[in-house]
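Most newcomers find our protein records easier to grasp once they have seen one. There is nothing in a record beyond a sequence line and a structure line. Getting from the letters to the tokens is the skill we practise here. An example says more than a description, so a record of this kind follows:
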Amino acid sequence: MQTNLMDTLLAARNDHVAIDALPEMPADIEAAYAVQGELVGRIGLPTIGWKIGCTSAMAQRISRVNEPFFGHMFAATTTASPATISLANFFNPIVEPEIAFRMARDLPASGAPYDEAAVSEAVAAIFPAIEMVDSRYNKAWKIDIRETVSDNGVHAFFVTGREQNDWRAIDRPSIPLIVTTNGVVTADGIGSNALEDPMNALVWLANGLAQRGLCLSAGDLVTTGNICNEPIRPKAGDAIVAEFGSLGSVQVTFE
């Protein structure tokens, strides 16, 4: 891997220097995942699980892709709701209300391919969440999937809601989403926006990781993609609440 490529990606995070262009564009998405793996290693922070991006038609349209992607999440940028987040270190942040899982046991690569039944048996809990994504590029969200994946799937922050362990009877595709900003309804969505069922996204991830010699592990948190019908772009002073019906809510205040 070229040193300049890693230096550019790290400078965006460590020195708040926006990326004009990658010194070396990965040849394809597999090369981009290799960049991502090296970047995460260079960041050196403990990971707590995985984010899945572009599981909704809206997100795929904006990103000009036709399949999801994944990235790592870090303990240092994960917190419980209600949360207060400074926007000072962001470039082009978007708030993504999502449905997330906590894994009960490993799904090793050697066991793939996995079906829904096998993945469901490995799940400990489900919970509402907000993922913050951020394009660290000067061209904002007009970025190539290789640029997205290389920069760890543009993951920035993760806010968790209350877990539900008795989750199997929950009608995941029908989970409603209502988002309020400063007390005013500003967006909505539904669980089926994530690959028709958030569990489908989790199955996709289990198999996608296995194809690359990676795996889901016991205790991992996995967020399954934005279920909102439109992107939410926060401003300093905004108090955003994402309500997921009976699943619960997540609140973030920005400063």
Observations:
- The CA atoms of residues 11 and 17 lie 6 Å apart.
